[in-house]
Give the backbone structure.
Amino acid sequence: MTSVKAISSDEVFKTWLKDANLKTLEKFFKKKKVDFKREHVSLAETVQDVSKFIIVYFEKNVQAAAASGKQSGGTQQITAEALEKMRFYNFGSKKVNLATWKGEKQVPMYNTLKEIKCPTCNGAGGIKCKSCGGIGTLKCTKCEKGKGKLNCKTCNNSKTEDYKVEVVDAEGKKTTEIKKIRCADCHGAGVYTCPDCGGLLKIPCKTCSASGTSPCDKCKGTGVLYEYAIMPVPGVTQKKSGDIFYTKDVEKFIDKKSVEDMLNSKDIKGIVITNPDDLTEKRLKPELNYWTKDSKKVCDDAKQEYKDDVKKGIVREKAQIMVFPALQLNCTSVSGNKFEIFGIGVSENFAVMDSKFN
């Protein structure tokens, strides 16, 4: 098996330097009291380290993908309060480019939003209070056995209180006499009216504020719900698009749309396979001449997506899968700015892009 000639960091850096904006280069690399020239920027001083990775790419039919999602996602019902937390979409008669649309494929549509009567409370907003059964009162538990009265705690239901009176006789001897006086707290009744229920044996239900009804949990007391449909985003599509897979570490610097645009704009060469099961170290490493810890996950993700899309008719069976060698050059300028340079492809045919160089 003949291996591809992967790009070198020197090739990537030279190509990047040749096309880099001169004013930005000067801002990043000009030294004091020295007239700046492009050739003053050197790989040895700029590139701090180099990482190797792979990019897996295969085409899919976007129109087929759109067709597979045409079924409505159904309807949802929410409360009036929840309306403010929702995001609705209203496309009118316009369509979006599905190839560049970054949102969900199916979204809540504003023009389908309608008010409906709450089925739980039938639009009343309230339901029979579960605590009091709808009567608005509860049995007073404080005096339930006392029939609206409570024993006086001062006289202990005796109706009188004992008052001690000191008496001294002619010989100076002291004695204590007990006088029973009507209890001042209960006025001699021995009991007093229950302060909780006022002697009525019933107390207002706190749950429903004695109304007999509680707010409906379903509609939160408004009597209405809001129903809306979840529908596919209306769009126009490019005939072809692609799925791109590479390590998440690189995704922090270059987005997949930029990579796809670059791959589509140039005829970049790579390893061509037609069987997703060939996305393995055994098959690819001899041609790449390297294999990183992230390569397996990238290939596994691409393989699963490819097979799923074939089942959906989005990707035709045995469609080409391209595997590209790629480099990430982590750079630091004279002024201390950090940026990245990326090279994708093989030695005789590759593309270069950068990140944070502005």
User: Anything to note?
Assistant: The first helix runs from residue 9 to 19. The chain has a mean pLDDT of 87. Residues 3 and 289 are 7 Å apart (CA to CA).
